[in-house]
Amino acid sequence: MIGIIGGSGVYEITEKADNCEEKLVKTDYGDVTVSILDIFSKKVAFIPRHASGHSIPPHKINFRANIDALKNVGVSKIIATNSVGSMNTDMPPGSFVIPDDFLDFSQDRKKTFYEDKVVHIDVTEPYCPQLRDVLAKSGDVILGGTYVCTEGPRFETPAEIKMFKMLGGDLVGMTGVPEVTLAREREICYNSICIVSNYASGISEEELTIDEVFEMVAQKEGELLELIYNFIKNVDDSEECSCNHALDGAEV
Q1: Average of pLDDT values for 132-154?
Q2: Any idea which architecture 2-245 has in CATH?
Q3: pLDDT per residue as tens digits for the range 229-247
């Protein structure tokens, strides 16, 4: 089964499905409502990351419950969408970027399923290259870029953005980590479509507002959904990947 974790602009995917069934999935980390969709004769499990009505702020998202719920319903490949600010003028607002690395500056989040045993997963390639290749042929995307995850909910300061750029960051957001590494711990392929909504603080000459984020996502909604639909058409959800064996050699 294919999993989609959607932020703004993706909620409408349930309306386009041939069939939609809501399922309450119980996990050790909390209960999660998952929409099971039929799209192009494939089963798709959809979770709105911020819940109904975009009501959960980024630093309060139950990442472990979301990933575990998708695992429990049989998902083997996840595509997530993340709204981001750009620190790289080659990735302007309106772009879709497929990241290939991240820097984690989040602070107060549960970041592993393994708190009672020692498990060291490899993140040399944190985002699944197999899914990247499928996304590359599914729409107009920029391949590669380093995603910087901050705690939120505030936007970043100009000094922070300057530091992130010096460290090699291209994009900045609040929701990509630990989602990506939790998926790896559950041996699920994971990749992200980063929707660039604005230039980051200190690069943009204007003050940042959440309204401009929502406005850009609304403008790109049709293209984003088309990219996701093409991905669903193109991906082979039964194809094996090294991500599906991420715990081999990871446990002490």
Answers
A1: 97
A2: 3-Layer(aba) Sandwich (3.40)
A3: 999 999 997 888 999 999 9
One-letter identity of residue 148? V
Which token pair is 10?
């993706």
Annotated binding-site residue? 8: yes
Closest CA to 99 of 151, 167, 156, 176: 176
Three-state DSSP state, 155: coil
Greatest CA separation for the chain? 50
Which residue blocks in 178-209 are alpha helix, DSSP H?
179-185
Task: Give the ranges where the chain is alpha helix by DSSP (H).
Answer: 13-16, 63-72, 129-136, 158-166, 179-185, 210-234
> Per residue in 37-53, pLDDT tens?
999 989 999 999 876 66
Q: Give the CA dihedral 58, 62, 65, 66, nearest 10 degrees.
A: -10
Q: Tell me if 216 is assigned to a ligand binding site.
A: no
Check if the beta carbon of residue 63 is closer than 8 Å to that of residue 30. Answer: no
50 is in an annotated binding site: yes
Q: What is the pLDDT of residue 5?
A: 96
Determine if residue 33 is labeled as part of a ligand binding site: no
The residue written with tokens 């194809």 in the block is: 239
pTM: 0.94
